[in-house]
Amino acid sequence: MREILQVKGLVKNFSKKTAVAGVDFTISEGEFVGLLGPNGAGKTTTIKMLTGLLKPTEGEVIYYGRDFFRHARESKRFIGVVHQYSNLDRDLTAYENLYLHCILHGIPKIERDSKIKEALEFAGLTEYEDKEVKTFSGGMKRRLIIVRALLHEPKILYLDEPTVGLDPQIRRSLWDLIVKINQIKSMAILLTTHYIEEAERLCQRVMIINKGRIISSGSPEQLKKGVGRYVLEIFYDDHIEERFFSTRDEALEELRKCTLSCRIREITLEDVFLKLTGRRINV
Ligand SMILES: Nc1ncnc2c1ncn2[C@@H]1O[C@H](COP(=O)(O)OP(=O)(O)OP(=O)(O)O)[C@@H](O)[C@H]1O
Ligand SMILES: [Mg+2]
Fold it and tell me: How far is the CA of 42 from the centre of ligand 1 (A)?
């Protein structure tokens, strides 16, 4: 697949604070990539540099072989973005919010209506077309924000923590929408999250970010295999010890020797993070 994006040695310093400390990766057409990391890891700062909201201190961002900052106007056509705190105009209808985006992105007048109708249908919001956004639930607003970012048909969609703060059922329905965008529209997606399950379920490739650095990258399966497939948890009074094994039999053998209460479970990306950094993603 053709490469959309190349990121080389990306750094962002805010006065004395280094938010992103040298990040390199590429994304190809149609790929679904996750940037998984705890609060303050540098996810939003990375997305802002890839979408032109922040200028990097160092490094290069290249879309289809051309430097982003030298060709910002053309490159922005390839980019759709839902920022962490993206919002809609509450007093406008769903249709009007999408219409504004069409104007901002120079979508020809003649194409606007059909694109908006298609986007509303894709989001399952057709019947709410003329309703003011202030009457929408949190999940409906998120759906609308996401399809708004697709109106100009970008090649890559950036989603910065798209399901944060939503209840599990709404989160699942948003996952369906996001997967549909990747599969039906063949759009590449870079999604940031600190939800382990979100990264494991959705992403073909996950980059784990901590303190501004990508500390590991691969498919969820590869990342997990690198640590071991099974975890033996040993419950002490004040903490839980985790030991990693490549087979259930090995874990069982250790479990039999255990005098404390313990159990075996399959490994998750949370364990991978713990093994790499010594702490948990979600504390
Ligand atoms: N404008 C700024 N000025 C100073 N420091 C900043 C600024 N923006 C971010 N930072 C710091 O840079 C680090 C990375 O922040 P960033 O928002 O990129 O993290 P994040 O991974 O998106 O976290 P979260 O999960 O909380 O959204 C944090 O320590 C943050 O406090
Ligand atoms: Mg963030």
Answer: 6
